[in-house]
Write a structure and sequence with these properties.
Number of helices of chain B: 7
CATH architecture of the largest domain in chain B: Up-down Bundle
Largest interface: A-B, 50 and 53 residues
Number of domains of chain A: 1
CATH class of chain A: Mainly Alpha
Distance between the termini of chain B: 68 Å
Strand content of chain A: under 5%
Radius of gyration of chain B: 22 Å
Helix content of chain B: over 70%
Distance between the termini of chain A: 51 Å
Helix content of chain A: 55-70%
Number of helices of chain A: 3
Oligomer: heterodimer
CATH topology of the largest domain in chain B: Four Helix Bundle (Hemerythrin (Met), subunit A)
Number of strands of chain B: 0
Order of helices and strands of chain A: HHH
Largest sheet of chain B: none
CATH architecture of chain A: Up-down Bundle
Chain lengths: 122, 176
């Protein structure tokens, strides 16, 4: 069973090494001749105003909370999806409806948040 | 103890978890601490895999790395004006505070070590290569064969309550 995780481990290692080696190589090999213009902040050619590090608007909090809730929903989808094929031979429609009820209840909340204006900016 | 590839990878994950956890508590920059926490949580997920708790490992990655950590970063970015400022302690720490904190931390450590030492199942436990059946499929079966179907659907109602509560609290000013 543990050997089944080897591809995941290798994928993770490969991702880390690929990003790390590329960053290190550009750092070592890239010539560095900085001047004032090169070091200035570039944003679509517009002169930068103020500091980039500002407080983010609190309006994002609903996005964050919606994300967490649907994140937890995925946790329940996962074991369902794993055994779906096994169950589908005998009671496929029934377990499909089970999950549709689960998602449907959450969809009500999603529609509520939508109607409440949670997904629009203003 | 024979030193196989398995133990090598295990110690890799253990080192990754402990080292990044140390960085979390020592580094001054809160964003760096959050990213170091990501490495810790991934390491714990790897340790869950070694414990043959595959559902727990997946949940660890989905909820903690994917969810809680993002929430922490959101919290940092939305509350502090300069989130890359080093953490500073205002005023000076009293000797008594240091002493009390140390005593409590030490007591907790002793408690955990005592529990570890006294759990019979953990004594003389060697890795005999026994492989347990995957937990994810078992959990899925228990939900779908009706035994835990009602709690499963109730969970969605619980999440619905959280969802509506979040929308209600954060968007009160729009419609009123």
């Amino acid at each position: 069973m543990l050997i089944d995780y080897l591809p995941i481990l290798l994928l993770g290692l490969f991702a880390v090494l690929f990003a790390g080696i590329n960053l290190a190589l550009t750092h070592i090999l890239g010539p560095k001749r900085p001047n004032r213009v090169k070091l200035s902040v570039y944003e679509s050619g517009v002169r930068p105003v103020g500091d980039a590090r500002q407080r983010f608007t609190i309006r994002f909090d609903l996005v964050a909370m919606l994300f967490i809730i649907f994140d937890i929903e995925v946790v329940f989808l996962y074991p369902w999806a794993v055994v779906f094929k096994k169950f589908s031979e005998t009671s496929g429609l029934f377990i499909l409806i089970e999950m549709l009820v689960f998602i449907g209840i959450l969809l009500l909340g999603y529609i509520y948040a939508w109607k409440k204006g949670g997904l629009t900016w203003d | 103890m024979e030193f196989t590839l398995k133990t090598f990878i295990f110690y890799g994950f253990a080192l990754m978890t402990v080292a990044s956890a140390l960085i979390v508590v020592t580094v001054r920059n809160i964003v760096h601490a959050a990213f170091s926490l990501m490495v810790t949580l991934f390491g714990v997920a790897g340790l869950y895999v070694f414990l043959q708790a595959d559902f727990l490992a997946a949940t660890q990655v989905i909820v903690y790395v994917g969810g809680i950590l993002v929430l922490i970063l959101f919290g940092v970015m939305m509350t502090s004006e300069r989130f890359d400022m080093p953490i500073q302690v205002k005023g000076h720490i009293e000797r008594g505070q240091l002493f009390l904190g140390g005593v409590i931390a030490l007591a907790l450590l002793m408690l955990l070590l005592t529990v570890i030492a006294n759990t019979p199942a953990w004594k003389n436990l060697t890795d005999d290569g026994t492989e347990l059946p995957p937990t994810t499929a078992r959990i899925g079966e228990l939900i779908l064969n009706g035994q835990f179907l009602l709690p499963f659907e109730v969970v969605s109602v619980l999440l619905l309550v959280a969802l509506i509560g979040a929308a209600l609290i954060s968007r009160k000013e729009v419609r009123d």
